[in-house]
Amino acid sequence: MRVDHTSLSATWYDPNGGTGACGKPLQNSDAIVALGEGNWAGGAHCGKNINVQYQGRSITVSVQDLCPGCQGANGIDLSEGAIAVIDPNYKADGVISVVWSFV
Fold this sequence. Notes:
This protein has helices spanning about 35-40, 80-85, 90-95, and strands at about 5-15, 30-35, 50-55, 55-65, 75-80, 95-100. By secondary structure, it is mainly beta. The chain has a single domain (about 5-100), classed as RlpA-like domain (Barwin-like endoglucanases, Beta Barrel). A 6-stranded mixed barrel has the order 1-5-2-4-3-6.
């Protein structure tokens, strides 16, 4: 069953080579996402892919981190490399509303 998370907030971050909550080193250019606490499920989704859509653009990213400070428990935090694909103005836009679902 496919569940879409509609109009949720997405932000971006730079892991700068640090180890994510799933245990792997993460780079700013990686196609990765940190899930908010509402979808974290104790790390059960580590390594799973989600599709994120924003204004007609989409990207598939791998769950590799936890975002305890996300905009709401169901928000997501994309790596800088990932958010740049769907929002070329991400730095000016800041928080964007996206639709995402597990692939």
